[in-house]
Write a structure and sequence with these properties.
transferase; alpha/beta; eight-stranded mixed beta sheet; disordered N terminus; about 40% helix; 11 helices; about 270 residues; SAM-dependent methyltransferase; SAM-dependent_MTases_sf; methyltransferase activity; methyltransferase
């Protein structure tokens, strides 16, 4: 149950990105105001549902790649959003039971559901931080209570950087987080992109709803987040095209989804 602080902070009069996205991926942790703007945006741009679904599938593929092929056993998930199916810790610990995962968010709805996130295998560990992307130093300091930051970490920032209006600030935040992680760590990013008139219109409608704005960016700017890192093949691509898995086949997986992603490795020994 939400504590008193969470109840005070939760505003159900305006849509919220975490609840809105939760509605699009079939979750139940949303309010009428979120469903109303969601249905409005479906009318403007039905493809946004495909963005939500395929982005979630990308999370699973990226985590499995890091855990299985790269041996990563630690994950820092910043801007985690509301729990649904196959959260980062569930995917990671399914293939690596000793994996440790730290979730970071400062949203009161997510805080209220933190108990659902704080499950773990006996061999691993999962923690939740009520912290802010805009304070990377504090995020890293708190994460060090669960993760060994001298060993590689998978930094997950999915569908979150669009909330940072200034692109250079967003890049700086990513650089600061990666600077606190050792060589062999990986950056995993996905975000909606300004690659169709429909997506741009959907973004404008969402931002006009009173919710915290989300800014869709050109693909080149998504690629810019990986500057200085070694991009993992196939590079920065639409989310369904990143190492596709036949098991993920479904709506949107073969189409021109307006969201791009990538995985980059921090070089060094």
């Amino acid at each position: 149950m939400p504590d008193g602080r969470s109840r005070v902070r939760i505003d159900t009069s305006k849509p919220h990105s975490a609840r809105f996205w939760n509605y699009f991926v079939g979750g139940k942790d949303n309010y009428e105001v979120d469903r109303e703007i969601g249905d409005q945006i479906k009318t403007i741009f039905p493809g946004l549902v495909d963005v939500a679904v395929t982005s979630r599938r990308f999370l699973g593929r990226a985590v499995r790649y890091l855990a299985v092929e790269q041996g990563v056993r630690q994950f820092l998930d910043v801007g985690t959003g509301l729990p649904t199916a196959d959260n980062t810790h569930e995917v990671a610990q399914r293939v690596a039971p000793d994996a440790r995962i730290v979730y970071v968010d400062n949203d009161p709805i997510v805080l209220a559901h933190a108990q659902a996130l704080l499950t773990s295998t006996p061999e691993g560990r999962t923690a939740y931080l009520d912290a802010d992307l805009y304070d990377p130093e504090a995020v890293l300091k708190a994460a060090a209570g669960t993760l060994d930051l001298s060993r590689p970490v998978g930094l997950m920032i999915l569908n979150t950087l669009g909330h940072v209006a200034d692109y250079e600030q967003a890049r700086a935040l990513v650089r600061q987080l990666m600077a606190g992680l050792p060589a062999g760590s990986h950056l995993v990013i996905s975000d909606s992109t300004a690659t169709s008139e429909g997506m741009i219109a959907a973004s404008e409608a969402y931002n006009a709803s009173g919710a915290v704005p989300y800014h869709v960016r050109p693909v080149a700017e998504i690629a810019g987040f990986f500057e200085g890192l070694e991009l993992v093949e196939p590079g920065v691509v639409r989310v369904p095209e990143w190492r596709p898995d036949p098991a993920d086949a479904g709506a949107g997986d073969a189409g021109a989804v307006d969201a791009y992603c990538g995985v980059g490795r921090k070089p060094g020994t």
